[in-house]
């Protein structure tokens, strides 16, 4: 590596559950640093034995690299955490302890040190609702079905490849929302109206648009040199779709530079689905 | 509320981005407490004005409820954070500051205080790969297509409704992995072999099984009183599928009490897809 290369570290994510919380949060923190890092996931560390093994792995890395590894933990079992705290030569960032203890004081209740969020998911209503939402969103992808459309929490509309499918699935997966989506197609433009099945659900409809240049780029990856992907056709479709969304008074945004997380968050702010109210 | 009811608090999640990190992590922390809470998301707080508005909302809640609201923040802009810190009457849990400052010391580099992880996602290879993985997984759901099957990072097999589809989509959405899935059907059982298209990809195959009682329950929700959902048929299919997985020497797990996060994490540990190596 040249002298100008940013420093490299190994980062461990240790959890008694899946480690997904540790990793999601750790990645957000690490994104604040211009640094190359190697990631090692150590999920399901739920016995002292496994914790000792993790310590050996971390300390071995520390010696080999001559640098402290960064260790994010979301361990809730104090005995297992102690094995790591006592033995580990990495820089320990204890994500739970750091916030749980001050919260115990403020709330004046003890935390239950429960491992993981899912014990037997088949008995959890929230979890079953989430799986049902994923299935619903798949069955209502791309205007496939109008059955039970009124059960939708959100209905997305937009031209083909404007981001409807990944956003619908994300809304289902992350928030347990039933998200349908409908393509806007030349027939709709000719009729100058949204697909008729959608009329009774105006309040749940949200539009996705996209810059024609970007749309043409995305479509060309799938069908190179087609009329479908041509910049002229993309310009026409986007302009017709945006005009229709304005006429129909539905809210919409441009997805061109936005991630599905950002699109989903904006939709939730605008649509405020009842099911998300606590 | 009865005297036995756990205390109720309002919890705010404040972020200059989507707030998804704040909420994911905050929920994991709150799951440690037996407490009912009301959640308020305040995403895209990226100006001092919006921060002042957030402070007013929090302080209003504090007065109305006579209890400190809990406030999780993932603000990276120090000036915006200062507006919250100075004015807010809630209990502030500054998730970034808490870990970023010690990391700056250890790494001897300054954090860049960059807002959000996605600036212009259309230019990010990792992001585009993730969208491509979602599309790939959708197109390779339920054995729909053998095209480009060799591009799969993971191939899931199992009887209908054993959890293949949600797990495939989760692997794509969370990890950017191309996950195909194939149903095991009576034809395969008669032939006593995995679907022929899968033969060259043995190392990427992972099996999902499920307890027949639970399978029958799930199938009955979709097709009540059908042969498909009957306990006899479910027992037969599960037993044939498990025998086949054993014979073929592929790794598998039972999804009965597991969440898609737990299933996905176990699959990653076993399959170790190359694309996940850093």
Short summary:
Two copies of one chain form a homodimer. With 278 residues, chain A is of the alpha/beta class. The model of chain A has no long low-confidence stretch (mean pLDDT 91).
What secondary-structure arrangement, pairings included, does this model have?
Two copies of one chain form a homodimer.
Chain A: E1 8-15, H1 20-30, E2 36-42, H2 48-65, E3 70-74, H3 78-87, E4 91-94, H4 95-107, H5 125-139, E5 154-158, H6 164-175, E6 179-183, H7 186-191, E7 205-209, H8 212-222, H9 231-248, E8 251-254, H10 260-271
Parallel strand pairs in A: 1-2, 1-3, 3-4, 5-6, 5-7, 7-8
Helix pairs in contact in A: 2-3, 5-6, 6-10, 8-9
Family (chains A, B): Belongs to the pyruvate, phosphate/water dikinase regulatory protein family. PSRP subfamily.
Binding site for ADP (chains A, B): 158-165
InterPro entries (chains A, B): Kinase-pyrophosphorylase, PSRP
